[in-house]
Amino acid sequence: MNYQWYPGHMTKAKRMMEENIKIIDIVIELVDARLPISSRNPDLEELAKGKSRLIVLNKTDMADSDMNDEWEKYFNTKGYYVVQADSRKKTGFTEVSNLINQACSEKIERDRRRGIINRPIRAMIVGIPNVGKSTFINTYAGKACAKTGNKPGVTKGKQWIRINKKVELLDTPGILWPKFDDQNVGMRLAMVGAIRDEILNIDELAYELIKYIHSIYNGMLHNRYKIEESEDALETLNKIAEVRGCVSKGAELDVSKAAAIIMEEFRNGKIGRITLEKPPV
After folding, report:
1. Angstrom distance (rounded) from CA 273 to CA 84
2. Is a pLDDT exceeding 80 seen at residue 174?
3. 110: part of which helix (H) or strand (E)?
4. What's the CATH number of domain 8-171, 3.30.450.20, 3.40.50.300, 3.40.50.10210, 3.40.140.10?
5. Which end of the chain has fewer beta carbons closer than 10 Å to its terminal beta carbon, N or C?
6. Dihedral of the CA atoms 60, 47, 195, 91 (nearest 10)?
7. Portion of the chain with pLDDT greater than 90, in percent
8. Which residues contact 31 (CB under 8 A, 6 or more apart)?
């Protein structure tokens, strides 16, 4: 399966970000804690050059807690400010505010010396589709400011959101990049729902996910579906179809239905806390 998805509105969104970056004090980049490298847009490195950077490991409640700590250490060593957050459970937001102030302390002091008082910090919030930006913004602001949805492409244009007297956020649409050099990156993004399911082979995606879970989190599928796990991912998929009653006409197992169940339950964190990649050594 070839994982590509770059609709026209993403080109427009990238151009908009390029036009606004000069008035921004800090770039807040949301990444999915389950795949912190694969969910980073490489185009942002050039775009945000010279700006303070805060990486928010979002959806930490669905990722392996030990790996969350490993990823935080990894990004710290690269010179980023980093925070672990769970936008739905509203954790990590005090630290977000503290780190924004810390990252922009020189700018705040410069304003003070010039007699500029209470000018809010301008932050641009960026991230790939379905990384949870809108939920993050609404939780941070304490009110519904941005549309939310468990699918990519909900935010279509830019909007300024006043978080408080100290911080203003520029929300931007989630953008991917035109070509995945590593198809494994595309596969991981597809697994977490950053690419529209309509263009994907869900059966193949579930097959690859089962193989990964069995190799790294052996026993997790057994605990969730009460089956004996097999090294053969197709056999495991058939067992899940059986226990979940996925049967088509003629009493044959409906593997596609079982695959859809697995992908939905993984994306909702029901199978367990799973991280799809480790920090580079």
Report:
1. 15
2. no
3. helix 105-113
4. 3.40.50.300
5. C
6. 20
7. 57
8. 39, 40, 55, 56, 57, 58, 127, 131
